[in-house]
Amino acid sequence: MNPQIKKLATIANKAERLIIGLMSGTSLDGLDIALCRFRGIGLETEIELVAFETIPYDSDFKDEIRSIFSKQEVSLEKVCLLNPWIGVTHAEMILSCLKKWNYATSEIDLIASHGQTIYHAPKLLHQKEKFNNATLQIGDGDHIANKTGIITLSDFRQKHIAAGGEGAPLAAYGDFLIFSKRGENRIMLNIGGIANFTYLPATRNADEVFCTDVGPGNTLMDAYAQKYFLKNFDENGVIATNGKINDSLLNSLKNHSFFQQFFPKTTGPELFNLNYLLRAQGQSQTETISHEDVMATLNRFSAEMIVVALKEFLNDRTDFKIYSSGGGMHNPLLMQHLKSQLPNHKFLITADLGINPDAKEAVLFATLANECICGGQVNYGSGRNGIPSVSMGKISLPN
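The chain above was modelled as a monomer; its predicted structure follows.
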């Protein structure tokens, strides 16, 4: 037997496992690295977040990714070159963290890498009849495994698509395993580049679990702050707070067929980008309003589309608690807009459930790896609501 296969079998039967989860989002802030201790599988999964760090990307890394990110036409050579380069870069960041945390690579059982999304193409967006849903993440798992010497799982989204999903959002799986609680209806609201939510029923009935993207979270605000204010993002919503909401622009931003599509659905910066904003400004004749007013309007736009989606789903029910995570959670103005429009709902954060909200997505991928290797028996339901009942992750073995 291949010794790495034997090691994999040993890991699957251990009482507890140390798994590193990696998340690199569309905001390109940096690599989230979460070291997690797992006990159990399925709905009996217990997780301890042992250590967490976000290693910021330097300008060169960001520029390389942006040269191919979310564009229909790019250099195929550049995609080919960046695939291993990102993998090696992420591996080096892992090794740096392990040294800082005083862990040897031999102590780590698995790495779970989301990779770097460069294009997301659900059918509702590309609308090409002979093609199905598609998505592409790069940052090759073999290079991570080879550089670190740790068995690596990656490319989680492809199985989801192969089983009939859109490749996103995958939060439903980890949310169900980690956060569902009998007796409490929960909405897990993640405001990353794109905003999405998972509904976790008090019954813990997998067939009732629901997850969908709802529209832009931070992606438009981040892109605008980077172009016109030379900032990575609008920290604490300061720029937007100094502007005024322009109702004409806001209405134009909201006028898109995506928002009339049935749930569940997925989207990305392929749709919600600065060209989307420019079209809305042209339609509303608001090209000359101040940059601060644009930012204030984008902030309100993100909040309103989250609220519209939640209200449509909740259907006037108030027996829910909303747990927030993602970068948008740190934007006071955005959260103020949400709370003012949903006054009868209690807003909390995932830290109230024992998971650092900034680490949540990295923890979710570590959870998917734990389930892939050690579990794989959870019934996520009958395949409705865009949640095929599958175990995800491709396995890369070190040399």
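Residues 76-101 form the longest helix (26 residues).
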